[in-house]
Amino acid sequence: MTVAKVVLGIVEFWQLDLNVIEKVTKTIAASLGLIEEFSVQKSVKRLKVL
Q: What is the pTM for the complete model shown?
C-alpha cells in the first residue's frame, strides 16, 4: 500500500514536472519568437530609413 502510494506520488510529480517543462519551453519559444519578430521589425525600419 505504501509503496504504491510512493510510486503514484512519483508519477504524479513527474507528470507535473513534464507539464512545467512544457510550459517553460513554450514560454521560452514564444519569447524567442517575439525577440526574432522584434529584430525583424527593427531591420525593416532600418531598411525603410535607408
A: 0.47
The kind and range of the H/E element at 26 are: helix 2-49
Strands (E) in the chain, as ranges, are none
What proportions of the chain, in percent to the nearest 5, are helix, strand and coil?
95, 0, 5
Site of grid cell 507528470: 15
Give the whole-angstrom CA distance, residue 37 versus residue 42.
Answer: 9
Dump pLDDT digits (tens) for 5-23: 988 888 888 888 888 888 9
Return the ∠ at Cα 41 (arms to 38 and 22), rounded to 5°: 30
Query: Which residue is associated with the grid cell 522584434?
Result: 38
